[in-house]
């Protein structure tokens, strides 16, 4: 033992002599300064690694930021961004038809008939025929007169109710509990499954991630939580990670199927992973991820798996009875621990309502916000909002009862039939292609021959409001009950065909309309600059002065 210790001491002393020999030409202050600079540099590198994926994309962003700080380049970039901001502001003003805004309350209250007259003037701002199926997504119900009349009556009775006070409004909380159980049963949950009714899909996702973060902290001792999701997962997952200081590990999807790359997601799992995410279906391309394979990975590492069914929520449970097929994505799949499902989309309820469901009550407990030391009493809230309007809950309850199971089977059959028709029609058009194999309500298409964003502008001129996608550049149409109207699908296929023919007359031409913003945004490595452009959009939307 002594010989080993002596040998180790000899080696250490030998290395110290070598180091001292190399440092001999330098003064102590130089050595101290070099040490401090090195430590600072290493800490910066470590912080960068902690905050970002250590990829070429992240490194190129840093290099790009350094490049655009050069005097001439900075001036040129500033001019181009100013032009982009001006274009965005102009487009936003066009939304309001350049109408003046009311910026102050009237000194005296207005009479009901005066307010209704003013309201009718605001209705004239509506230019796009969303009821006629010219809009992608946004409005999902066919808005039958009977349903509108029912919802109006229910809303008028419950507009000022508040489920924060169940002892005052037990009717509302009873409806809420029933809605949650109905949806859990649709997703084949057992008696141990539970959930909450939220204001929309984003809140459902945010609450689930809050629950898993706190569960991981208290049960597994995780202090630096990470979430692993395909890059097609809804942006609400990024939003939640921003709110709760969670590292988001975005995994590219398969470039052919656009499904989550299960093997790549498994490689991203580490001791800090608190959640895996899959979509059914994903918003960009309408693709259902391989939930069963993701569940195997989640079960293997004892990590929760969330299935985002916000978009397909009231299609998924009815697909089989509607005569179509999808693989299981519900609580019958071992390893699935939570599901988000929007009722205000294909459930045809008024905005906004959604359900977050858990396979076990142990997760939902961490969703709640509890504060026991407040002088105002013990405070507990199940969702982000404190007070909520019971009217949304009552209207949701009424709409679900109005349609019933068979009503949703029929609406699913109609929507998926139209999806198949449009997909088949698009596949027959030369020079465009459908992305992946969508199996629910979204069809995405792109082109390798021309700038696909030119197609956006041409379709806009024909009265369509279609969603633009990026990475890769594409468009998609989200089909609703408004699209099952006779002739709408045929009109869309015809207009796309005619617009593609125009684009192919000069395939190298670039878009000059609103699509130019999307095209430019994809080329900018520094995504913070794109973020500034997006913020300019919101700033312009709420700007009340010219």
Helix and strand topology:
Layout: H1 2-23, H2 28-51, H3 56-67, H4 71-95, H5 112-123, H6 145-158, H7 170-186, E1 194-198, H8 201-220, E2 226-230, H9 235-244, E3 247-251, H10 262-268, E4 273-279, H11 291-301, E5 305-309, E6 336-342, E7 354-358, H12 361-364, E8 369-371, E9 379-381, H13 390-427, E10 433-434, E11 442-446, H14 452-461, E12 467-469, E13 474-478, H15 488-503, H16 515-522, H17 527-541
Parallel strand pairs: 2-3, 2-4, 4-5, 5-6
Antiparallel strand pairs: 1-7, 6-7, 8-9, 10-11, 11-13, 12-13
Membrane topology: Single-pass membrane protein
Organism: Dermatophagoides pteronyssinus (European house dust mite)
GO molecular function: pyridoxal phosphate binding; sphinganine-1-phosphate aldolase activity
Describe the structure.
With 546 residues, the chain is of the alpha/beta class. Among the domains are: 2-51; 152-402, Aspartate Aminotransferase, domain 2. It has 17 helices and 13 strands. The protein has a seven-stranded mixed beta sheet with strand order 1-7-6-5-4-2-3, sandwiched between helices. It has a four-stranded antiparallel beta sheet with strand order 10-11-13-12. A two-stranded antiparallel sheet has the order 8-9. Helix 4 (71-95) runs parallel beside helix 17, helix 13 crosses helix 15 (488-503) and helix 14 (452-461) packs across helix 15. The radius of gyration is 28 Å and the shape is globular. The N and C termini lie far apart (84 Å).
């Amino acid at each position: 033992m002594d010989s080993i210790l002596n040998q180790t001491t000899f080696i250490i002393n030998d290395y110290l002599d070598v180091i001292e020999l190399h440092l001999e030409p330098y003064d102590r202050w130089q050595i101290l300064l070099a040490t401090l600079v090195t430590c600072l540099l290493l800490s910066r590198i470590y912080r960068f690694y902690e905050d970002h994926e250590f990829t070429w994309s992240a490194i190129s962003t840093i290099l790009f930021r350094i490049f655009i700080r050069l005097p001439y380049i900075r001036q040129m970039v500033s001019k181009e961004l100013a032009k982009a901001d001006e274009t965005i502001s102009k487009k936003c003003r066009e939304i309001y038809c350049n109408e003046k805004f009311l910026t102050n309350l009237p000194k005296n209250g207005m009479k009901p008939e005066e307010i209704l007259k003013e309201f009718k003037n605001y209705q004239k701002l509506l230019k796009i025929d969303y009821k006629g199926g010219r809009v992608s997504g946004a409005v999902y119900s066919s808005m039958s007169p009977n349903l509108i009349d029912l919802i109006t009556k229910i809303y008028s009775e419950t507009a000022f109710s508040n489920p924060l006070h169940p002892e005052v409004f037990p009717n509302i909380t009873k409806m809420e509990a029933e809605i949650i159980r109905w949806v859990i049963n649709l997703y084949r949950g057992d008696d141990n499954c539970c959930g909450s009714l939220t204001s929309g899909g984003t809140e459902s996702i945010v609450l689930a991630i809050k629950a898993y973060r706190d569960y991981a902290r208290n049960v597994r001792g995780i202090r630096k939580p990470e979430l692993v999701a395909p890059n097609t997962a809804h942006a609400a997952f990024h939003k939640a990670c921003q709110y709760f200081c969670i590292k988001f590990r975005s995994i590219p999807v398969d470039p052919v199927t656009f499904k989550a790359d299960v093997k790549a997601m498994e490689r991203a799992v580490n001791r800090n992973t608190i959640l895996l995410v899959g979509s059914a279906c994903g918003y960009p391309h309408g693709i259902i991820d391989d939930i069963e394979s993701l569940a195997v990975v989640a079960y293997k590492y004892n990590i929760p798996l969330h299935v985002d069914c916000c978009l397909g929520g009231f299609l998924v449970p009815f697909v089989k009875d509607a005569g179509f097929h999808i693989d299981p994505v519900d609580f019958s799949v071992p390893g699935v621990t939570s599901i988000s499902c929007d009722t205000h989309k294909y459930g045809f309820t008024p905005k906004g309502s959604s359900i977050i469901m858990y396979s076990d009550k142990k997760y939902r407990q961490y969703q709640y916000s509890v504060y026991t030391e407040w002088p105002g009493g013990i405070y507990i809230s199940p969702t982000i909002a404190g007070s909520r309007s019971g009217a949304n809950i009552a209207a949701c309850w009424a709409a679900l009862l109005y349609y019933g199971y068979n009503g949703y089977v029929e609406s699913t059959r109609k929507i998926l039939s139209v999806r198949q028709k449009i997909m088949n029609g698009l596949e027959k058009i030369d020079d465009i292609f459908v992305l992946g194999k969508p199996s629910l309500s979204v069809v995405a298409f792109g082109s390798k021959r021309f700038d696909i964003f030119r197609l956006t502008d041409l379709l806009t001129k024909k009265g369509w409001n279609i969603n633009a996608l990026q990475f890769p550049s594409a468009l998609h149409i989200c089909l609703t009950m408004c699209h099952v109207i006779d002739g709408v699908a045929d009109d869309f296929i015809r207009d796309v065909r005619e617009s593609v023919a125009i684009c192919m007359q000069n395939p190298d031409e670039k878009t000059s309309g609103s699509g130019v913003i999307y095209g430019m945004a994809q080329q900018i490595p520094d995504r913070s600059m794109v973020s500034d452009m997006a913020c300019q959009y919101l700033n312009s939307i709420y700007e009340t002065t010219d």
